[in-house]
Amino acid sequence: MTNSNSSSRNRRRQTPIGAAMRFLTTLSGSNFVTKRELQPVVDRVVFQSTKSGVRTMGQVSRSFRKVSKATKPIRLGSHDKAAAEAAADTTSAAPEKRSYNFDLNPSEDQQMFIETIAEFRGTRLRDVAAEANNTATVPEGLVQEVAELGVVAINVPEEFEGIATGEDTVTNALVAEALAYGDLSLAVAALAPAGVANVLTAFGTAQQQETYLPAFGSENPPAAAVALVEPQPLADPMAPVTTARRKGDQLVIEGAKALVPNAINAELFIISADFEGMPLLVIVEADAKGLTIEADPSMGLRPAGIARVILDDVTVPVDNVLGGLSRPAEDRAQELAEIIARGRIGWAALAAGTAHAVLDYVVPYVNEREAFGEPISHRQAVAFKVADIATELDGLKLVVARAAARADQGKSFFREAALAKAIATDKGMQIGSDGVQLLGGHGYVKEHPVERWYRDLRAIGIAEGVIIL
Question: Any idea which residues carry the catalytic annotation?
Answer without folding.
Answer: 464
